[in-house]
Amino acid sequence: MSSTSVPTLTLNNGVQIPQVGLGVYQTREGAEVERAVSAALEVGYRLIDTAAIYGNEVGVGKAVKASGLPREDIFITTKLWNAHHAYDAALRAFDESLAKLDCGYVDLYLIHWPLPMEGRFTEAWKALEELYNSKRVRAIGVSNFKPHHLEELLRGAETVPTVNQIELHPMFQQKETRAYCAEHNIVVESYSPLMQAGEALEHPVIVDLARQHGKTPAQVILRWHVQSGLVVIPKSANPERIRENFALFDFELSTDDMQAIEGMERGVRISADPDTAAFK
User: Fold this and answer.
1) Between vectors from CA 271 to CA 268 and to CA 277, what angle results, nearest 5°?
2) Catalytic residue among 25, 45, 54, 180
3) What is the tally of structural domains in the chain?
4) Domain with 220 in it: what CATH number?
5) Annotation marks residue 45 as catalytic
6) Mean pLDDT of each 10-residue bin along the chain, 280 residues long
7) Is residue 209 in some structural domain?
């Protein structure tokens, strides 16, 4: 499949984001992440999602360069870590990430966590707005923000976030946050879309739909994300799994299928709660 077959969504500033990408959380710097990104780009992925805290920005950048693809064909996301919410610290952190990626510019830069107990994410946002206005990034957004965090950010913001990247899977569908984002024209991006290979893959609804469609449980869940209008970034370092996770565009879930998956909601969060996550 060519990358042109991958649907895109239009962000609120007009930038196009591929709807399916590769996440590289917990993929080791060096050969492992370079192999994973190279495999993904070869298959047709054009969105790569990393972060400063992942420690693998150098390898991502090397693989992008080694691919021989035009830089403008690849959408690179990285994120500001929690220790750098102060304005000047955020600008320096971006410089460090860009130097490691060595890719000229970043397509999407996100505040990784709100850290509400410190109350500085609005200051970090001012730094991201500066990066956006100076055209060093094509789009800016947030990650792990609940509606009340977004409310606080928007009160003093000149720029509405383009993306909110959140934990989202059939057992934790984040309908309130998705509705808020839809109202403010913020694209929602799903991380841990398969519950990190958790119980969703073995759920009877998913197993039955996989059998009906001749697909794997993972493909059914990822297709649900796509048809729900979400950007989805499954993580894998396994080239075969990377290919499998991309084979989503030759089948479609019916309305009944989608409703059956929506009925799986259980409020099961596997990552930290953004209201209390304080790691730095």
Assistant:
1) 120
2) 54
3) 1
4) 3.20.20.100
5) no
6) 72 98 97 98 98 98 98 98 98 98 98 97 98 98 98 98 98 98 98 92 97 98 98 97 97 98 97 95
7) yes
